[in-house]
Design goal:
Layout lengths: L1 H11 L14 H10 L27 H16 L9 E2 L3 E2 L2 H16 L5
Antiparallel strand pairs: 1-2
Length: about 120
């Protein structure tokens, strides 16, 4: 989960690329539901192959403490002002503003941290 979250931050900051996904719903509708609907993200949702540590293109765990330091470093960089990166387009949601990127990062981390609690 730590490496998966790190890969998420790499994606958000444009350091990791993922294939854009097509679909029947416009990305703005899906984005709004995912970011702002008062619902918890469902368990078992298929992740992007580029962020999949179990057989996809995700970063493999190496050492727990090292992986945790890397996640902390990426989180600090993601939230630091001024930014040393520019927002790109999300493969599912398209172009997003800073508030949406921050909300996505929070919800993604919250979703996975809840796997270890309620």
């Amino acid at each position: 989960m730590i490496c998966h979250l790190s890969d998420g931050f790499r994606l958000y900051m444009g350091e990791k690329k993922a294939d854009a996904l097509g679909g029947i719903y416009p990305s703005k509708v899906v984005r709004w539901v995912a970011l702002w609907a008062p619902l918890r993200w469902p368990k078992g949702f298929q992740t992007m192959k580029e962020l999949d540590q179990q057989g996809g293109g995700g970063t493999s765990p190496v050492d727990f403490e090292r992986d945790l330091r890397e996640l902390r470093s990426l989180l600090e960089r993601f939230t630091k002002q001024p930014r040393d990166f520019t927002w790109g387009a999300h493969p599912h949601f398209g172009t997003m503003n800073e508030k949406e990127w921050m909300r996505l990062a929070y919800l993604h981390a919250d979703h996975h941290l809840r796997q270890f609690g309620s």
